[in-house]
Amino acid sequence: MQLLFLVFIILVLIFGFVVAFGAPYLPTLKKQTDEALDLLNLKPSQTILELGCGDGRVMKAAAKRGLMVVGYELNPVLALIAWLNTLKYRSQVKVVCGNFWRQPWPEADGIFVFLLDKYMEKLDQSIVQKRAGQKKPIRLVSFTFKIPNRKPDGRHQGLLLYKYL
Ligand SMILES: C[S@@+](CC[C@H](N)C(=O)[O-])C[C@H]1O[C@@H](n2cnc3c(N)ncnc32)[C@H](O)[C@@H]1O
Questions:
Q1: How far is the C-alpha of 99 from the C-alpha of 22, rounded, in Å?
Q2: Is the pLDDT of residue 142 over 90?
Q3: Between the CA atoms of 115, 118, 119 and 124, what dihedral angle is there, to the nearest 10 degrees?
Q4: What are phi and psi of 88, to 5 degrees?
Q5: What percent of the chain has pLDDT over 70?
Q6: Centre of ligand 1 from the C-alpha of residue 1, in Å
């Protein structure tokens, strides 16, 4: 009983500490995942980054479409679940357990995020800075939250598309 309580406390702490760096865990449903990938409109073998990849469900759906995927996840429990969830696509999917704000990002064609309002301006600045020197355009799809002072290039239901040219 005490062990169960200890495990519960540890999980609460692990899931809770992430809130200091980004959005808490809330998974995107299958319908929105499919619509987000449709909106990103990437071709097989192109690369997508998922900033905060949760349990890996979006990465798995992207890999099924033939995309190369790099997902960042700060919560080690979720990073492990994401890694296990995408085992079948190991040659396409890389899971990085770490803070995506601090990690280098590889060149990519698309980014998917499901964050919070308060991180969207920082995200915009990070994309501009981190892709400096990258020649190819990058498409960002954000679930629910808008980037302040940037007009979306497309939208579908609660999904917003931004193009960085
Ligand atoms: C709202 S959930 C979205 C999960 C997944 N993208 C999805 O759509 O199903 C946000 C995820 O980002 C992770 N996260 C938050 N801040 C992060 C950071 N700075 N670096 C890496 N992961 C982070 C959280 O642990 C959580 O799993």
A1: 9
A2: yes
A3: 120
A4: -60, -25
A5: 100
A6: 30
Can you say whether the dihedral through the CA atoms of 53, 57, 58, 62 is positive or negative?
positive
Nearest CA to ligand 1 atom 20: 99
Confidence check: pLDDT of 162 > 80: yes
Residue 135 pLDDT level (bands cut at 50, 70, 90): confident
What's the whole-number mean pLDDT along residues 131-137? 81
List pLDDT tens digits, range 74-129.
Answer: 999 999 999 999 999 999 999 999 999 999 999 999 999 999 999 999 999 999 98
Strand, coil or helix: what is 36? helix
Question: If DSSP codes are grouped into helix, strand and coil, which group holds residue 160?
Answer: strand
- For residue 99, the ligand 1 atom closest to its alpha carbon is 20
Question: Is residue 50 lining ligand 1, measured as CB closer than 6 Å?
Answer: yes
Does 108 sit in the ligand 1 pocket, CB within 6 Å?
no
Residue 49 Cβ inside 6 Å of ligand 1? The answer reads no
d(CA 122, CA 117): 10
The answer to whether the CB of 99 is under 6 A from ligand 1 is: yes
